[in-house]
Design goal:
156 residues, alpha+beta, Pantoate--beta-alanine Ligase, Chain: A,domain 2, 2 helices
């Protein structure tokens, strides 16, 4: 009754033929990966760009708010439109402001626009407020002959 080892040998050889993947299964897996990997990489690129734009847009909004407040407080909004460049960290932000009449009364619409590039594409943030043209603010000067406040970026 020496049939024990032979049966064991047959059972092992039968398991070995079922242990691997067929060529069709390997090709199907490769095809699936060829479709999924480029889509996943593109999704990561888009998410990265969206995060970068959001961070730069928040900085641009903060700079526009600061510029708008300085224009109103100093009274410089009464001058002609101006433009300039601000540096925040390694990035440059181009700004400009416009002063135009508003439909009602003696109010003026003061708009500050800050532009910045991200990966070759231009984005802008725009903030506006109404100012009363009748209540003109004069910039405060110091007793030592100062010239009053100046705009960030070197504009007088």
């Amino acid at each position: 009754m020496n049939s024990g080892p032979t049966n064991r040998h047959r059972a092992c050889s039968g398991d070995r033929t079922r242990a691997g993947f067929t060529l069709a299964e390997v090709l199907a897996a490769l095809l699936f990966m060829a479709i999924v990997i480029p889509v996943a990489v593109e999704a990561l690129r888009v998410a990265s760009q969206a995060g970068l734009v959001a961070a730069r847009k928040a900085t641009a909004a903060r700079l526009a708010d600061r510029l708008l407040n300085e224009l109103v407080v100093s009274g410089q909004w009464q001058r002609a439109s101006q433009r300039g460049t601000l540096a925040e960290g390694p990035y440059q932000y181009d700004w400009r402001w416009d002063n135009e009449p508003w439909e009602m009364g003696a109010l003026r619409l003061l708009t500050v626009q800050v532009a910045f590039p991200v990966q070759g594409r231009e984005y802008t943030v725009q903030l506006s407020t109404l100012v009363d043209a009748a209540a003109t603010a004069t910039p405060a000067t110091s007793g030592t002959g100062g010239t009053g406040p100046t705009m960030p970026g070197g504009a007088p």
